Amino acid sequence: MQNFEISVLDLAPVKQEKTIHDTFQDSLSLANHAENLYYKRFWLAEHHNMESIASSATSVLIGFIANGTKKIRVGSGGIMLPNHSSLVIAEQFGTLESLFPGRIDLGLGRAPGTDGLTAQALGRNPAIINQQFPRQILELQKYFSKENSEALVRAIPGEGLDIPLYILGSSTDSAFLAAELGLPYAFAGHFAPEQMEMAFNIYRQNFEPSEYCDQPYIIACINGVAAETSEEAHKISTTLFQAFINIIRNDRKPFAPPVDDMDNIWSPMEKTMVLQKLRYTLIGDQAEIEEQLKSFQEKFNVNELMINSHIYDHQKRLDSYSIFRKAKDAILKI
To answer: How far is 191 from 277, CA to CA, in rounded Å?
Structure first.
C-alpha cells in the first residue's frame, strides 16, 4: 500500500434548527481542527438552490476559511466552471492566491451543481457544455500564465501565479480530459460511485505528463462516519442516509438529526438506492475504519482520500475526523 494523504470535503451543510451563520462557523471550526490534525487540504463545493448546502458563493467562503487558518491548503471541490466566466474565476482565485500565497487550490467541474431550472438561471447552455468546459480550462491556464502579459485581456490578480488546477468528475468523461491535459483527477465517489473504478483505470492508462503533473495523481472523495463505538457510528450515519433519501425525493430541506431506525423513513426500494450510492462509505469505530481504509486502498491505491462527513452533532463530526486521522496513521505503520 502506497502512502496517501487525507483531506476534507465540506459542503457547508445546513442543519435543522441552525442558521447559515452557524454553518459557516462550524466549517471554520472543522478547518481549524483538520489543520491541527495535519490534513492535506480543505475543499468546498459549489451548489445552488439547496436549503441543506450553503457553499454557493464558493470563492467567498474559501477566503473566509483561508483567513481563519494558517497552513492547510484551501480550495474548491469544485467550482462548476460552465456556471462562470473563465476570466472572473481567474481573477477570484488570483485574488485568493495573492491573499494566501501557496495555499489555494482550484478544483473544476462541469456539472451545474443544482437542478435544471436553476442551471438556466445561472446562464448555462447545456448544448455546448462538452466543448465549453475543456476550452475554459485552457483559458484559465492562459490567464494564469506569465506569457499572457502581452494579451489584450488579462487576469489581474491571477497572472503569473501558480494555482494548481484539478479536474473533478463523477463519470468517465472527465477522466479522459484530466488524462489528456496531464492534470490531477478527483472523483466524486461520495455520491456517484458507479463508475469510479473505471474512471481511475481510464485516467491512469491515458495519462499524458505535462508541465503541471508528471504522473497521475488521484483523489477519491468518499463519505466517512467514525465514532468511538460501532453502534454510535451507525446511528449518527443516519443523518447521511436521510440526506440521500431527500435527494431521491427531490427534497432539499436542511440536514436532520440521527434516528434509531431508518426503516421508519425509507422504503425497501429507497434503501437499496441509498446503499448503492453509498457503497464506498466508511462507517465504524477506529478498528473498523482501519480495515475499511485498507480494503479501499488495496482496491483503488489512490494518492489522496478526501472525506466528507455528514454528521449532525458538530463535536461528533470533529471526533470522526480525529478517528480517521488515527486510523490512517495506524495502517501505514503496519
So the answer is: 6
